[in-house]
Each structure stands twice: as structure tokens, then as C-alpha cells.
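Something for you to look into today, if you have time. Could you write out one complete protein record for me, on any chain you like? Leave the record below and I will have a look.
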Amino acid sequence: MQIAIIAIFFIALLLIATEQVNSMNKAAVAMFAGTVCWLLYIMWGADFVLAEHQNELMNFLKERGEQLNSINVKEYIAEHVFLKYTLDAAGIVLFLLATASIVEVLDNNGCFDFIHEGLYTKYPRRFLWGIGAVTFVISANLDNLTTVCLMLALMHTLVAEERLRWVFGAVIVLAANCGGAFTVIGDTTSLTLWTQRLVTPTAYSFQLVLPCMAALSVVLLLFHRHLPHRMRLVRTLPPYRGDDTILNRWQRALMLVVGIGGLWFIPTFSRLTLLPPFLGALLVLSVLWIVNELCNRHLLQADVMVRRRQPLALQYQNIQNILFFIGMTLAVGAVNESGLLPDFCAWTTRYVHNIYAVGTSAAALSAFAGNVPTMLANIAAFSHATGADYAQNGLFWPLLSYCTAVGGSALAAGTLAGFALWRMEGVTLRWYVRHFLPNLLIAFFVGLGVFFLMA
């Protein structure tokens, strides 16, 4: 039955990697794989539990004064095996829901219009560096998928030429993935490392900020040389947001500081209270919500808030992101409990003694299977490995995060952010591989070299 679970898992990865061809939603595939893998696991649970958790199972039966039977095994799996992965996924999901709500409040109040004003220029080279830097910084606070959706929508209101939008869109994806990788709140993968207590926020960011900046800077330099001197802009009116124009610039700036500044405070909140990160995110959301109601009290009293524009596309992308993460967490958990990932970890640590070889392999796998499943599988496999490189704040974890983030950008479907680019701008795989992949490979190895020198 282990073979069946592994087969379903790899078939799911294949379908996810070829989504542009088979047109099957990766979130649906991940959810199906996660649920079916656990159904197969619990049907033959006695064999798996006796192989992986024999002592714990016997203590469980001893406390209850019962004999080994199929019912008791299923109860043990539900309470002590499956529940662990459910709780891990739930913490990440609550964090994502809170940050998505923060983005919605800020977006509806026009707080991101400051970015539109700052990036408005007819010079594509200046726009390239501006949008790369802004995306990098924003993604360090918000998850990369949300950042990409926001920045692509903003770019579409400024740049009129399709091929230039493709270039800027590819840069946005890389900048979002790099920015999300160097903070523990910037991406689901780095957030998972933090919630699993494999890294601490300050040490993690210190190890990755320069490699991520180096990789992004190399791509910007390579594209900078080939851009024209001027570009044609879209002639549009400022975005209409119903009656929310009652907010002045100071009120919007206040809400932006509360939202983004609050997100930066989450690691400190978690360190001081030892409570999970999602609680800090909910606290920031509640404070921002109160500030929003104070700033919009006239609209609330006039009952006109229902006419506000709602970012439905962004909500749809976030729901898919959440369902995809839940499905992959469950699928990886089932494969891990079947014994495959611990065996893989034992083989790797015995025969492959170079963490950079493992990281480069993870980068290649991320390009096809995606950074989320690659990262989750490596966390499950190596979280109990011995050695300084695999301990808390060991070199392996930030290296893995960097490799999966940049490697996942190698193909448009390697990350959810890249898939958003394909959906929203219609970037073809042929163009992406021909014009962006060579530059990305150079940037990847430059960033890897910076990481090696800092180690």
C-alpha cells in the first residue's frame, strides 16, 4: 500500500507540473491527492503505525487498557498522527486568511494608490527597477501570490505594450518570490519553517536578504540593457472606488502604516508571547479593522459601504492558494507517515554530504513540481535529521528556502505567483523559457555564491 500512496502523490505532482497542458486546477489535484492518500493510509493503518509508531501505539493502548484492533488503530491515527498535520495546516491557513483580509481592507481604501503614483513614468528602465524594488519589499510583508496579483493589476493600468508587460511581469514574479523568501511571514514555505521552529525570524532574514537581493539585482541588470528608452503608457483615470474617496492621504497613509507595520511586528509578538504567528496576524487585522471603521464612520452611518469595490479575483486566487496548501500538507504528511521520506532522509544524509547539492536538486524539482510541495517534502524528510546543518537556524533551511523560491521561478507554473502571471497576462511558456530562464539561471548561481560566501 505504500506504493499506492507514493504513486498517487507523484501522479498529483505530475498533474500539477503540467497544469498548463492538462488544464486541471492544481488546488483540486492537491486536495484529491491529500484526502485519498490518507484514506489509503488509514485502511492499512496497522502496518504503517506498527512500523513507525509502535512504542507510542502501545502506550496509547496501555493507557486505555485495551487490546490491539483495527478500531483502536484508527483512533490512534486520527488523534495522534493525522491531527498533527491538520493543526500545522490550520495555523498557516488562519495566517493567510488574516493577511488576505488585511490586503483587502488596504486595497479597498486606496492605500496602494501611493505605489501607482510613485511608479508612474515613461522610462521603462526606471520603471523596471522601481517595480522590482517595490515588489520585493511588499512581498516581504505579504505572501507572494497576493503581492503578484496586486502588482500585475497595477502594472496593467500603466504599461500599454504587451511584450513589456511580459518582461515586467516575469520580474515581478521573481521579486515577489525572493522578497517572500527572506522573511518568515513572506511566503507559506518560510512561514512553515518558522512554525515548525526550524528557523528564527532574525537569523533567517539575515542569512537570506543578501542572496535574494543579489539574485534579483542580476536579473534587473540583465534586462536593463535591452529595454527601450521610452514606453507607451495606458491613459486611464485614477481607479474609482465608490465613495471611499472621502479618505484623505493622511488617513490612507495611517492605514498603510498600521497594516504593513503590524505585519512586521508579528515575529516580535510571537517571540515575546510564545503564541503562534496566526494570533499576531489576527491581532493586526483587528486593529486595522478598528482604524478602518473610525476612518470610514461617515460611510458606515450612511450605509454606503456595500457599494465598495471588492477584489474578487484576488479573493479567488487566495482561496486556491489556501486549498492547495492544505492538500499538499495532507499529501506530504501521508507520504511521510508511510516511511518514504524518513528513508529518503537517511539515504541522503548517508551518501550525499553536501547540502548545496541537495539544495540545487530541490531548485530543479521546484521548477517542475512547484516550490510548495518541494519545500514541504524536504521539511518532512529532514526536520529530524541530525547534524549542525539541519538544526534550528542551520544552513540547510535558508538554503532550501532560497533554492525553492528562485528555482520555482524558473518556469511560470513553478509557483502560484508564476501561475498568476500566466493567467493574468497570458505569458507563453516558450517566451518565458527563451527570454527569462537564461537570465534567471545566472541570477540563481550568483545568489547561491553570495549565500556560500556568507555561510
Notes: The mean pLDDT is 82. Residues 11 and 33 are 9 Å apart (CA to CA). The longest helix spans residues 70-108. The two ends are 42 Å apart (CA to CA).
